[in-house]
Design brief:
Helices cover 39% and strands 13% of the residues. The chain is an alpha/beta fold. Helix 2 runs antiparallel to helix 9, helix 3 runs parallel beside helix 9 and helix 4 packs across helix 8. It binds pyridoxal-5'-phosphate.
């Protein structure tokens, strides 16, 4: 007899990530150049990997405290003081999570009630809206418009706030646009959060990956913000440790406690060997990060310049993260169709902007976390393939 099994009703509100779809398509073609995935193509610093291995030899393979190993919690609070001048208690105001992903999920599960509205960026990182929906909340999309440098306008934010608004998710430097907020822009958002009593979940995983004269401002440092902000961060991007799954959150005890409770029941604790690897990465030389960011910068200029030389692309120069987000509407097809076209005809995998929300529909996300030579080859292929598009197929 066939099973009557059906997935839970709550899953009707979410769909598989559009990034994974293009990542899977990419795997089907042997010569594909994959610019769809958001992870550095670097190997983590060797001293960090050695520390993880060393920990395994010392038998550090048992459960750790739910919130994290004390040495890493302590090092993280020192980091917060060093980088932001903020004091967090290591045992009650800091939590080590399974990447930023779990931190965001646990935070939303711990802090939102059915009917609560959560302001999320659009385009925005793929997990925000589904996590809000799984937590029973309602995502409210804040448009990030190209004409505004992909930054939220205060008027838009104000117009979307209602008496049900409870949380706003910020993500600077931003995925997928690479936008970074100035001091004044962050201050203006902070003021809105204070005035409307919003909790802020600030996803700062690209904090260390900024270019030119751009500076990252942690939103918790603004007046009235420490007490209402969860600062979410991760070792994934800064130390090229995406597969080790170590993230962390700072916040006041009232906001960390609910998150901790969810975290306790879904993960128990974070992989201990990975925590030791992360600890060594944090305490050792930071030259690795500097070198990686220098290399990303070189690639950023290459991709930005070459794309703008190809008829049909319109690409702004991002100030952070490792993505460009060119406007491709001149090609006269949806970003989904255009990304498929690039897979089939150029053998280059990217992600359609529509995977990041409605306001991303005219764009393509191209990750430049791939080797320089691969990027050169990908851009040659894109140029060749798009030249072959009949003029009538292009809207220019
Ligand atoms: C903005 C943003 N937040 C969070 C994550 C997930 O990070 P982690 O690997 O720490 O879960 C990503 C990964 O691409 C991201 O781009």
């Amino acid at each position: 007899m066939p099973s009557k099994f059906k997935p839970a009703e709550r899953l009707k509100q979410i769909a598989p990530s559009g990034i994974r779809r293009f990542f899977s398509l990419a795997k089907e073609l042997p010569d594909i150049i994959n610019l769809s995935v958001g992870e550095p193509d670097f190997t983590p610093p060797s001293h960090a990997l050695k520390a993880g291995w060393q920990a395994s030899q010392e038998g550090k393979t048992h459960y750790a405290p739910t919130n994290g190993i004390p040495e890493l919690l302590e090092a993280l609070t020192q980091r917060a003081y060093r980088d932001y001048g903020l004091n967090y208690n290591p045992s009650s105001e800091t939590l080590i999570t399974v990447g930023a992903t779990e931190a965001i999920f646990s935070a939303l599960m711990g802090l939102t009630n059915p009917g609560d509205e959560v302001l999320v960026p659009d385009p925005g990182f793929v997990c925000y809206a589904p996590c809000v929906a799984l937590a029973g909340g309602t995502p409210v999309f804040v448009p990030l418009r190209e004409e505004n440098g992909f930054k939220p306008s205060i008027d838009d934010v104000m117009s979307l706030i209602t008496d049900k608004s409870r949380v706003i998710i910020l993500n600077y430097p931003n995925n997928p646009t690479g936008a970074v907020l100035s001091f004044d822009e962050m201050a203006a958002l902070a003021k809105v959060a204070v005035e409307h009593d919003l909790i802020v979940i600030s996803d700062e995983v690209y904090e260390k990956i900024v270019y030119d004269n751009a500076k990252h401002y942690c939103v918790a440092t603004f007046p009235g913000m420490r007490e209402r902000t969860l600062v979410v961060n991760s070792f994934s991007k800064t130390y090229a440790m995406t597969g080790l799954r170590v993230g962390f959150v700072y916040g006041p005890e009232e906001l960390i406690s609910p998150l901790w409770l969810v975290h306790q029941y879904i993960v128990a604790c974070v992989n201990v060997l990975a925590q030791h690897t992360a600890l060594a990465a944090l305490e050792g030389s930071q030259d690795f990060v500097k070198k990686m960011v220098r290399e990303f910068d070189r690639r950023r200029h290459l991709v930005h310049k070459r794309l703008n030389e190809i008829e049909g692309f319109n690409c702004t120069l991002p100030k952070g993260a490792f993505y460009v987000f060119p406007n491709v509407k001149h090609f006269g097809m949806s970003s989904e169709k255009f990304a498929e076209f690039l897979v089939k005809k150029a053998h280059v995998a990217t992600v359609p902007g529509s995977a990041f929300g409605r306001y991303g529909k005219d764009y393509l996300r191209i990750s430049y976390a791939a080797a320089y030579e691969q990027l050169e080859e990908a851009l040659n292929r894109i140029e060749k393939a798009t030249k072959k598009l009949k003029r009538t197929e292009k809207a220019f």
